[in-house]
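INFO batch 0412 | record 1 of 1 | parsing
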Amino acid sequence: MKPLLLLSIREDDDAADEEYAAFLRFGDLTEESLRRVRMEKGPLGTVEVDDYAGIVLGGGPFNASDPDDAKSVVQRRVERELADLLDVVVARDLPFLGACYGIGVLGTHQGATVDREFAEPISRVPVTLTEAGRADPVFASLPSTFDAFVGHKEAISALPPRAVVLASSPLCPVQAFRVGRHVYATQFHPELDVEGLCTRITTYRHHGYFEPSEHDALHAMARASVVVDPPTVVRRFVAVARERGAGQHEGRTP
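INFO prediction complete | emitting tokens
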């Protein structure tokens, strides 16, 4: 069975390793079945997409909507490489899941408006599925409304017609969308549990998501939260990616 590929952009080892461990755990994957590339460490090189059942792009401190002159050399390289990869992914409708930063990257690639209008502070928010979300093979197993962890400076304020909105929240109209049948992105973190959120609160306390003095209160918020449904997205994405790969192997049209 083909592995999946996790593309990471997190420079901090604790946050990067926690993210990887979360996708392994919630996807019921091993290190052999979920290979990781830390894009911030060096050029991505050629990705042989036929070698993978699906591709996952994790989150991080980059903002796709920042002006180019405000982006680091590493971020500009990463985004060029991701744009080239998405050219192939979208054209071939390959299974792809972008989380948080990934929604800005995929949205930008598809011509969406990505800006600061619908930012959300680090918090637990209710996410509601659209009619399309309730019928989607990845999202249909979720409750119609469920709690998820968020924390982002940018968001999508307008999608192109070819994109399908799957979920929204009170302050953010696009919490998830799909392009084609297999290309997904979420604004909320499907891989994030309480311990993971606490790791990121500590890691990014000086990155402008909140005032450093709020650190302890945010930890308390996280530990008082019951957020159990978002990992279903990870599990279902892995299953759909593998089902598509099996169908192609057997000569069926998925």
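INFO post-check: The chain has a mean pLDDT of 95.
INFO record closed
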